[in-house]
Amino acid sequence: MAVDTFRNDEKSTNTSKIATLLRLYRYMLKYRFKIVFVLFIMAICVAIALVNPLIIEEAIDNYIKNGDIKGLIRLGIFAAIINIVMVLLIKVRMYIMSKISNEILLEVRQELYTHIQKLSFSFFDSRPTGKVLSRIIGDVNSLKDVLTNSVTTLIPDFITVCAVVVIMIVKNYKLALAALVSLPLMAIGIYCVQRFSHLRWRIFRKKSANVNAFIHEDLSGIRIIQSLTAEGETTETFDTLLHEHRNSFISAVRLNDSIGPIIDLCWGIGTASLYFVGIKLLGIGPGSVGLLVAFGTYISMFWSPILNLSNFYNQLITNIAGAERIFEILDTPPDIVDDSNVIALPDVKGDIRFDHVSFSYDEETLILDDVNFSVKAGETIALVGPTGAGKSTIVNLISRFYDIQKGNIYVDNYNLKEVSIESLRQQMGVMTQDNFLFSGTIKENIRYGRLDATDEEIIEAAKTVNAHDFIMKLEKGYDTELKERGNGLSIGQRQLLAFARTMVSKPKILILDEATSSIDTQTELLVQEGIEALLKGRTSFVIAHRLSTIQKADRIFVIDNGNIQEQGSAKELLEKKGIYYNLHMAQFKNI
Ligand SMILES: Nc1ncnc2c1ncn2[C@@H]1O[C@H](COP(=O)(O)OP(=O)(O)OP(=O)(O)O)[C@@H](O)[C@H]1O
């Protein structure tokens, strides 16, 4: 299965455009009263617009013909007033609609964000962050015009078109038929264009997502890129992606742009046909020139909304791809969910048991094969083994970041599947090498561990892990604002803050996955004391490649080939002269 990266396009799911549209329109239901008000305003505007040609006809065929200047002025004042009202009403309509569509975008974006937060690790494993971002930002934005124009264009223009046709037929059905003779041509033209246009816009959205994914990955790794002086390669890749993006846009737009000329052509044919039929065939003369002028205006009033409708249709097929991508994420169920009858995990002591656990990420390659072990509350277990052996996988399963295919995992005899995920994770502290810090103050970052922690508890936690001293040396101490990801602090300092964050959460079960690997020896000595305090009274799993950091573990599990190959204290394992002994010798012979 191809891995989703910025190099390849996302897969599309085939959903019906109508169903997507209806689902989108469901968000409008909440605003139905405001929308009805907007439609009422628009009906007044349409009525005024429809009256205008009648005023012109009246002015020419009646007042001008009979030389009634006073009547003409009265008619002019009336026309001016109703048209000013129309302009004001259009402003009100635009304001209300833009408010409604912005509120809907907010709602969709919130829904999407909340849903994404619930999605499991496997969702994020399978797609780049940039592509997810592109859905939350770009795709949601693309809905704005569809929502607004559905009310301001679709409904009123459709009504206008119908009303104009009725008026024309009532006034003179022969002229009406002549004016509308080119309609079938238009229908065929638009049908042909839309068939391909939607596909092309879909491709465009995917290419945009690729560009986003690349930019996100590139900026996240900018330090590595610069240190490897790989700017040239990344610029080249970026150029390629930009070209693909541009070409997909041009290809889609070129097709869309052909709709305008089709409408213009039909409009021209209709107008020519109207005058030809009116003057040549029906012999309309100077006596009823007003009728012909009114028809000329009606024909504009017919084709102009048709042009709007076709633009709207264009917009719809352009942006419906965005809606599809949003709903696809909303319809992705989280893999890891609570069963219906779960209970909240009560405060645990911290016993852990793996009972015949087998696990695979992709249902094909078995990563853990029938793993069995029991850990007593308060024990510190070190996991060692070659890279890719499955150490992180084991600890991820304890937090239930993935579900196992076979066997059971118990915490204090509670099967993980029978307790709520939230209550489980609340009692766990997980620290990885990537100790992500958020924008905000140091205090806020530590409090992330437990939102109701007091300032005193935060300081206490920082003191325990030896972070307090360096924090106090910063200009604003605990109120120092951190940059994104904690940039501006040393790696060791970031890890100390992450330790404090975990400390404040008072977890019953602690997982340190490579947590100390990038701390230099001096800092490591500093945090060692803190870590020991952190481990005290807690069941802990420590993964560290450097064997020196795990000597104090109660037991060491040597993981290899999907299972625990050896276990015991460091001393026992050395005496055994097995895998651990070899790992130990390999590391220490160079020292
Ligand atoms: N999210 C994932 N999706 C698919 N396969 C994965 C995923 N994470 C890890 N693997 C695979 O599972 C195996 C075990 O990985 P794991 O991260 O548990 O190893 P590890 O022992 O912790 O390695 P290291 O010491 O290098 O961190 C590896 O073959 C790895 O490629």
Specify the helix fraction band.
55-70%
Low-pLDDT stretches: none
The CATH topology of the domain at 17-330 is ABC transporter transmembrane region fold
- Roughly how many Å apart are the termini? 43 Å
Oligomeric status: single chain
Give the rounded overall mean pLDDT: 83
- The first-level CATH class of the domain at 17-330 is given as Mainly Alpha
- Provide the β-strand percentage band: 5-15%
Largest sheet at a glance? 6 strands, mixed
Name the structural class: alpha/beta
Number of helices: 21
CATH H-level superfamily of the domain at 17-330: ABC transporter type 1, transmembrane domain
- Give the bound compounds: adenosine-5'-triphosphate
CATH architecture of the domain at 17-330: Up-down Bundle
* Strand line-up of the largest beta sheet: 6-9-10-3-11-12
| Radius of gyration, whole Å | 35 Å
What's the total number of strands?
12
SSE topology sketch:
Blueprint lengths: L16 H10 L5 H35 L2 H50 L2 H5 L3 H13 L1 H29 L1 H7 L3 H38 L1 H6 L3 H27 L1 H23 L7 H42 L21 E9 L5 E10 L4 E5 L6 H8 L7 E6 L2 E2 L5 H5 L2 E5 L7 E2 H6 L7 H10 L3 H6 L7 E2 L8 H14 L4 E5 L7 H15 L3 E5 L11 E6 L2 E6 L1 H7 L2 H10 L3
Parallel strand pairs: 3-10, 3-11, 6-9, 9-10
Antiparallel strand pairs: 1-2, 1-4, 4-5, 7-8, 11-12
Helix pairs in contact: 1-12, 2-3, 2-6, 2-12, 3-5, 3-6, 5-8, 5-12, 6-7, 6-12, 7-11, 8-10, 8-11, 8-12, 11-12, 16-18, 18-19, 20-21
The protein binds adenosine-5'-triphosphate.
